Amino acid sequence: MSILREIVTIISVLAIPGLILFFLVYGQFKRVRVYEAVVEGGKEGFTIAVKIIPYLVAMLVGIAIFRASGAMDFLIAGLQPLTDLIGFPAEAMPMALMRPLSGSGSLGIMSEILKTYGPDSFIGVLTSTLMGSTETTFYVIAVYFGAVNVRNTRHALPTGLLADFVSFLAALFFVKLLFF
Known about the structure:
The chain has 180 residues and is an all-alpha fold. The protein contains 8 helices and no strands. The protein has 2 domains: 32 residues; 134 residues, no CATH class. Helix 6 packs antiparallel against helix 8. The chain is globular, with a radius of gyration of 19 Å. The model has no long low-confidence stretch (mean pLDDT 88).
């Protein structure tokens, strides 16, 4: 078990620097002016950020209403019998429910959980893993699809939610396997 944990640790330490180095070397190989390409991408990103602000505000207001109304607590209570069957702690459910809605909302929930249970607890590690392995599905659809005027999301929502569900199960499995 500890060998697997050491391998995962080495991969996680080298992944980001390795990816950056790969893009720099590949850009040089393809004779791309990498710095200029990054600056141009930053300009485009700023333009897009300005366009998505109205959609972002609408999404954040909706999330605040969802949390303040008590709907999240009601949903957690309804799902608890199912989560108990697979060993998913009820304390991590707010994160599992908020993450598809909002990155900042889920970051706030994760901070509360880490303060309460500690970063090295099962719930703390699980919550952190959920934060890193799932996507803000509703946020992406509302903000980014809205910003480029996509009205028919077709299979994007079911596919995104299925990916989030699989990520929740995978996070639970791997945290139990590697850490507890």
